[in-house]
Amino acid sequence: MKNFTDDLDDSSTPGFRNLATSLENALNPIYRQILIWKLTSELALCNDTKTLDIIELNGDITLSNLQPMVLNIDFVIENETFNGNLINSTSSEFMSLKTILDWLKGVLKTGFDPNVLPNSVVTFSNESMKVRVNAHIQINTTRVENRPLLLDLIINNVNTSGFDIIKSSIRVNGAGVAVDSIQVSIRFEGETFVPDLSNRSSSQFKQLSNRVTEAMNVIFANNSNFTEVIINGFRAGSVIAEVTTIFKEGTTIKANVVDTLTNSVATFGNRDLTLDTNFLNGITTTAAVNVTQATTVATIPTTRAVPPLDVRRTPLRFSLNQTFVPALNEPSSAEFQSLKLRIVNQLQGAFSRRAPAGFQNLEVNNFREGSVIASCSVNYNLDAVPLSPSEAVKILDSELQNSTNLGNLRIIRDSIQSGDITLNNLQPIDLKISFLIENEMFTASLTNNASSEFMQLRNAVVTWLETLLKSRFDPNVLPNSRVNFSDKAAKVLVNARVRINTTRLEDRPMLRNLIANNVSTSNFDIIKSSIEVNGDRFTVDNFQLPFRFPDLTFTSSLTNRSSPRFRGLNANITNVVNGIFANDRDFIELFINEFRSGSVISQAVGVFNSGTTERSSVITTLARNEAAFSRANLALDTNFLTGTPPSTPAGPSRPTPPKPFPGFAIAIIVLGILAIIAIPFLVVLFVKTGYCSKVANAFKLETPDDVDMKRPMFGGKSYNFQ
After folding, report:
1. Which residues of the chain, if any, have pLDDT below 50?
2. Where are the alpha helices (DSSP H) in 527-637?
């Protein structure tokens, strides 16, 4: 890099002349060659071969020694993941990807000039985990280096490359297409994220990427400013696609892209993708509404409110056969509030009955002219499965009861719409069904869809579910139902996705009960209370019930849910408890979580309708029916069940044996007797020996002979003590 100095302002200075000479030496050959190419092209059109022969410019470049055209072409491949081996020109990965050069040279030979020189060079680098290709190609030609032409030539032939080349990334000697890149995050419900979706080269990534790309290409097919879709990656939750949409520069904005996608649920559905339109919410738009009164035309903006972030919404729109008045533009007006209340009162109950789990409310967002167009949304909790657009349309149509009236609302039937779904393009019901199998032990092989264990269990589950739904709900169950299995406390959690092409309503409670009432036909021990249909589940109370059977011996086979002993003991206990509560309509089921040692302890769960009983009552009932367990050869430890410590039975009464007389007491008595006997002897001894008088003299007090007791003591002084 050269810094500007003041002498470069003066063309007479050495600094100016030196820099000018350097630039001329570098640029003159290039522009001479370009000029010759241009003149050659123009004269060739005139068939002026004589003039062609004498073209020459000052310098060393003529028609006879034109230099090859040098093209530096770079672009990004979307469906390849960059790795370190691609910088090693001897690696198999490099050699395999190097075939991109053959495609490039073929395009240039057939579409531009056949004289592509050998020994072209290519390198690869990392571009956000995608692969950036840098190619250096020389062409021996008299044609002019027309960069826009070459750019269009390559862009128009990317579909012949065998790679997903991002068109907007193509550059020819630095020239590219001016575009706007609009980032969008799209969530697909019902899709399960797997680690392979992080690998751009995996089959899972490529398959899902192709489905998303195809759908979006169809959605924007009629937009002449649309260029392409780039899949940047996938992440969990269910599966979220990070997408870049490319449009010609200055032709659109993100709000328009999001609105178009929100209204294209059916297009994604045709590719087995369930678009979460709520994930695209949060955009405020302004629409002009022309209200004509006499000769005055007013433009009144209406704003769609930003929806709350903790709500998942299904859009709903319909027309009312009544006259629009300007006051309906104002949410605070009496007219707006009155019509809103009528709609909510008439419709909210219908939606909450069909899909109650997580339902919040029916919300009226705004009204527009034509007659009166009501824009609403059916709102659900974030963790709920909202109604699909097709179901929202079908529920409202069903409520019309084959007429155009719903209470005092005159709804125009053909106007009912949710996103881009109407009565004319209803989509299949998409059922996400899950449940736990109690008597199957989860193993890692159930995550491998090519394993025999997976195929056997998958076929059994799909056959049972499809047969049940065909015979009891609707015969038009579509093929290719999908199933995956996961681990839940060593049991097998089944997640199935079944689609039904029907005009019947997706009544989730009814479908849930249909499956629960037919678990006996499945050949599996399905835990009824675990059944969910599109998020709708039973509301129950689970009570922990510890059973101990002291006469049984624990073995390791009781840790394997698939073993005959586990299944046999499980069935035996379950049958006894089912019999005990057979007349209790609030009892749903009993299932065993595990067996453990001591002798055999069963950790069981009793399931009852929510709020109908208490654990203490359940345990008391079981303890009172100890005989029912005994009849099934199960010795029930009722103390263990109730939590009462075992008591020791009392034996026959016996007289208390006398305690032995302590030895130290005898010694004291003997010593006392000896002391009594010794006292008289001591008295006689003292008298005979004069011992008493000697002791008396020893303690006798006498005045000394040399002391005059008449004289005052202490120096002859006397003291008067008062």
Report:
1. 45, 48-52, 54-58, 282-309, 648-654, 714, 719, 721-722
2. 564-580, 615-624, 626-631
pLDDT of residue 474: 92
Distance of CA 308 to CAs 336, 341, 617, Å? 21, 20, 44
Q: What is the pLDDT of residue 675?
A: 75
Q: Which helix (H) or strand (E) holds 258?
A: helix 254-262
Residues 431 and 499: beta-carbon distance below 8 Å: yes
Polymer length in residues for the chain: 722
pLDDT tens-digit map of 589-601: 999 999 999 899 9
Residue 578: predicted pLDDT: 95
Q: What is the pLDDT of residue 292?
A: 34
DSSP 421: B
Q: What is the pLDDT of residue 183?
A: 87
If DSSP codes are grouped into helix, strand and coil, which group holds residue 264?
Answer: coil
Q: How many CB atoms lie within 10 A of CB 344?
A: 15
- The neighbour count for residue 664, using CB atoms within 10 Å, is 7
Q: How many CA atoms lie within 13 A of 530 on its CB side?
A: 19
In this structure, which long-range contacts are made by residues 666-672, counting pairs with CB atoms below 8 Å and at least 24 apart in sequence? Answer: none
Residue found by looking up tokens 């002291």 in the block: 550
The residues, any chain, with a CB within 8 Å of residue 423's CB and separated by 6 or more, are 393, 397, 413, 414, 416
Say how many C-beta atoms besides its own lie within 10 A of residue 140's C-beta.
13
Whole-number Å distance between alpha carbons of 42 and 681: 166
Distances (CA, A) of 593 to 434, 545, 546, 596: 18, 10, 10, 10
Tell me if residue 526 falls in helix, strand or coil: strand
Give the whole-angstrom CA distance, residue 395 versus residue 408: 18
Q: Looking at this protein, which amino acid is placed at residue 504?
A: R
Count of CB atoms situated within 10 Å of the CB of 248: 16
Token pair in block for residue 679: 């006292």
Query: What span, in angstroms and rounded, lies between the C-alpha atoms of 589 and 555?
Result: 26
Helical (H) or strand (E) element with 154: helix 147-155
Q: Which two three-digit tokens encode residue 579? A: 């019999």
C-alpha span between 61 and 618 (Å, rounded): 103
For residues 704 and 715, what is the distance between their CA atoms, to the nearest angstrom?
A: 18
* Res 289: pLDDT: 35
Tell me how far apart the alpha carbons of residues 496 and 531 are, in angstroms, rounded to a whole number: 11
The Cα 41–Cα 290 span in angstroms is: 57
* Tokens 């709000």 belong to residue: 255
